[in-house]
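Attaching the record inline, Q. Sequence:
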Amino acid sequence: MNNLMKAVQINRFGDRSVLELNDIEIPTPTVNEVLIKVKSAAVNPVDWKIRQGYLQSVLNHPLPLTLGWDVSGEVAAVGAQVTQLKVGDAVYSRPEISKNGSFAEYMTVTADEVALKPSAFTWQEAAGVPLAALTALQSLYEIANLQAGERVLIHGGSGAVGQFAIQLAKLRGAYVYTTTSAKNTGLVQSLGADQAIDYHLEDFSKLKDIDVVFDTIGGETQANSWQTLIKGGRLVSISANPDADTATKYGVSAYFCFVQPNREHLDHLSGLANAGKLTVNIDSEFGLHEVAKAHERSETGRAQGKIIINLSLIHI
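Structure, as predicted:
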């Protein structure tokens, strides 16, 4: 194996111009890690927020840093203590975000953060699942404890997280409202939304007796969501930490979700995918040399699905 690989890194924080395609050494897995030959990765808003330095006070990344925290690929090597995976396994992961990421030809990941890839999905589809789907699953199932028959309001239903949230809420047996634009009404309904609310024309804050609000937007959207909740309802945000005093005022519970790696959750998602119960929509694909363009697409906030970095498109 050639000891060098291509990786997209930053040596300082800033705009898209700080992204560099570098030749670096292929990492060696520690005793509890696997080395993954990356087939595809995905771009998430957290990538460019880290690139801009917004999360440095929390994550304290050393530089240079390889970005990207969604991956699908083949196991190329395993650490001495890894027993559940073997060389050649097709896998996917949302790795620990404090370490180097997946915008590279190879990456190391702690084995208990890695699951077998859904066989029903392509490499590109599989790379689009972990971060967004884990975020939706952990928010709705683990934190909100969404139950069959409950009414859930999902903001931003056409976004990557929103699309998975709609599907998972319907699988749980909930009645799903979602905010979206008129052009995406058909998309969210095809994923299972019972009622699509065009945020340009309709006022979602007039809804009443909602059991769970899933806030993917923050700001005014979160502020106008409290009054929709039934007493004892739950609000979960992935955008802004909800105010505890406001939650108390409305007699509801409020939580913030920062997604965590979880192999068991990925196994559950693989089962759904292989049973034909989970869909992933791809917005666009870019090569490893086009990460700046992929970030630009993500930063518009208008992607209708996942933005994929496809290593087979590499052109150096």
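The chain is about 25% helix and 30% strand. The chain has a mean pLDDT of 96.

More tomorrow.
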